[in-house]
Design brief:
It is a single chain. By secondary structure, the chain is an alpha/beta fold. The protein folds into two domains: about 220 residues, Rossmann fold; about 90 residues, Rossmann fold, CATH 3.40.50. About 45% of the residues lie in helices and about 15% in strands. Strand 7, helix 8 and strand 8 form a beta-alpha-beta unit. The chain is globular.
C-alpha cells in the first residue's frame, strides 16, 4: 500500500490549524534523565486542548472540508479522547456533532463530550457505532475517523513538527499506539526530516492491535479490549497505519497495565502531571529499551493524554499502586 501522508501534508495541516490548538511544551527532565542514564525530554501533549493530541486531527479534517459540506455537522466514533476532540472542534467551528460511544466508555469522557455540546449516543459495541457513523456520513455528516484518514493523520503529525523544531538533537522518540494514526503522523515527519532518528511504539497488553498486526503482517481484529488503557483501545489498526508502522517504527513494546500504572504514579509524584495509562506507558517502554540508549542519547517521551478520572485513580489504587 502506498503511503498517502507526506511531510507537505503536515506543513499544510500546521498552517490550517494554527490558533485552533495549543503548541505544547517540550522540556528536558532531569529526573527522567537520571533514571534512564541519558538525556530525556517530555513532550507535554496532555496539555493540549481537551487533554490529548486529538484536536489536531479533528480540526484539520473539519477545516479541510469545504464549508458548504459541513452543514449537517460532524460525526465520530470514540471510546474517549477522540470524541471530546471532535465535539470541541465542531463547537469552535459552529457545527453540530454526534459522538457515538460504546456503552463501556468511562463516564468522564461521556460528560466531557456532552460539555462541548455534542449529542452523545451510546451503543452496544464499537462495530455498531462505526456502522451508524458510516450511515450518517452518507447522509451528509462529516465523518471524522479516529485514525484511518490522511487528514487526521496529517493533523496528528503536527506534533512531530513541533518536536523537531524544539529538539532537533533527538535520537529517539517513544509514542503510544491506539489505532496508529498518531505515531504514523509523528514518525512520517521525523523520519523524513531526520532519517537516523528512531521511533519506538508502545501498547498495553489487551490493547495491542499494532504489535499483533506487525507479527502477522496483516490487520488483526482483537476480540475485546481488556486493558485499562481505554484510549489505546482500537480493536484493529488499518492497512494505512500498519504500513506507516512497518515503514517508520523501529519496534513496538507491549507493557502491562500494572507497569503503566506504576509509571503513572511516578510521573505524578516527580513531574507533577497526571497522565493516562496510555501516556505513562511510554516511560515503561523507555525503561525496557534502556540498553538501546547511552549517555549521548536524546530521548523524547510523548505524553499523549491526561484525561484520567480521579475516581479511576482511586479505584486502581489497591490493584496497581501497592508498594509491597
Amino acid at each position: 500500500m502506498a503511503v498517502d501522508v507526506l511531510v507537505p501534508d503536515m506543513l499544510a495541516a500546521k498552517a490550517r490549524i494554527e490558533g485552533r490548538v495549543a503548541r505544547t511544551p517540550l522540556k528536558r527532565s532531569r529526573t527522567l534523565s537520571d533514571v534512564l542514564g541519558c538525556n530525556v525530554y517530555v513532550k507535554f501533549e496532555l496539555f493540549q486542548k481537551t487533554g490529548s493530541f486529538k484536536p489536531r486531527g479533528a480540526f484539520n479534517k473539519l477545516l479541510a472540508t469545504p464549508a458548504d459540506a459541513r452543514g449537517a455537522g460532524a460525526v465520530a466514533v470514540s471510546g474517549g479522547n477522540h470524541g471530546q476532540a471532535v465535539a470541541f472542534a465542531a463547537r469552535e467551528l459552529d457545527m453540530s456533532s454526534i459522538i457515538l460511544m460504546p456503552e463501556s466508555t468511562p463516564k468522564n469522557y461521556v460528560e466531557a463530550a456532552l460539555g462541548y455540546g455534542a449529542a452523545v449516543q451510546l451503543r452496544a459495541n464499537i462495530a455498531t457505532a462505526f456502522d451508524e457513523a458510516a450511515a450518517l456520513g452518507a447522509q451528509g455528516y462529516v465523518f471524522v475517523h479516529p485514525f484511518d484518514d490522511p487528514l487526521v493523520i496529517a493533523g496528528q503529525g503536527t506534533t512531530g513538527l513541533e518536536i523537531f523544531e524544539d529538539a532537533p538533537q533527538l535520537t529517539d522518540v517513544i509514542v503510544s499506539i491506539g489505532g496508529g494514526g498518531f505515531i504514523g503522523g509523528i514518525a512520517t515527519v521525523l523520519k523524513e526530516l531526520k532519517p537516523d532518528i528512531r521511533i519506538w511504539g508502545v501498547e498495553t497488553e489487551g490493547a495491542d492491535a499494532m504489535s499483533q498486526a506487525l507479527a502477522a503482517d496483516r490487520v488483526v481484529q482483537l476480540p475485546a479490549i481488556t486493558s485499562i488503557a481505554k484510549t489505546l483501545g482500537a480493536p484493529a489498526v488499518s492497512p494505512r497505519t500498519l504500513e506507516l508502522a512497518k515503514r517508520y517504527v523501529e519496534r513496538v513494546v507491549v507493557v502491562s497495565d500494572a507497569e503503566a500504572m506504576r509509571a503513572l504514579r511516578f510521573l505524578l509524584e516527580r513531574l507533577k502531571v497526571l497522565t493516562e495509562p496510555a501516556a505513562s506507558c511510554t516511560l515503561v517502554a523507555a525503561e525496557r529499551l534502556r540498553d538501546r540508549f547511552d549517555p549521548e542519547s536524546h530521548v523524547c517521551l510523548v505524553l499523549c493524554g491526561g484525561n484520567m478520572a480521579i475516581e479511576d485513580v482511586c479505584r486502581f489504587d489497591d490493584a496497581y499502586f501497592s508498594r509491597r
